[in-house]
Amino acid sequence: MAKIWIVEDDAPVRQIIRIHLELVGHSVLEAEDAQAARALLAGGRPQLAVLDIMLPGEDGFSLARAFLDAQIPVLFVTARTAVADRVRGLQMGAQDYILKPFEPAELLARVENILRRTRGEDARLLCGELEIDFDARRVLLRGEEVALTAMEYDLLAMLARRRNVAMSREELLVGVWGYDYAGETRTVDVHIQRLRSKIGQAYIDTVYKFGYRFSAPGA
Predict the structure, then answer these.
(1) Which DSSP state fits 53?
(2) Mean per-residue pLDDT for 60-67?
(3) Which residue range is the domain that position 192 belongs to?
(4) pLDDT of residue 120
(5) Most CB atoms within 10 A, among 25, 68, 181, 212?
(6) CB 48 within 8 Å of CB 75
(7) Local structure of 96: helix, strand or coil
């Protein structure tokens, strides 16, 4: 889990980003403009800043320099579609750029990728007889590759990256499927059953009346 700051003047957009980041376990602080963001920066530092470019007063490009100078990764979120804007943001050192309107699943995937790169998380996880290669999106069991669908892999990877952390069905729906799938949390249960049939029962624990947790056998 990471500490993430959102700097966005559009309150509904800011709320959507916050809700989805919190649903997958991140800690979030919000600012509506550059002045408020600089005040936050004076008292602490996040592991990622999600910045809108078109802020009132000082724009996101100018504000981004303060975060980048402090070695804080930046993800730009904006309605600007010009290639020149994207190039400018990336050339100044931003980790990534996402256009509005966006799907929450895409935002979460980009955040996950940035955090994995910047926090130096391992590209592989070896757990018992199970090996997950996150970069290659491959899963091996006792040295043999396991054939998973894209959704099955994404579900396993999300649980594995949060090893020993219980995740609710709702968090998994948002993180993997990208939206609130009200009344259909059974979708998660079905995919968990399929995963267990392929990798065994030992790696995914059921958390009663809540969700699931990835753990090593016997741990």
Answers:
(1) S
(2) 94
(3) 124-214
(4) 63
(5) 212
(6) yes
(7) strand
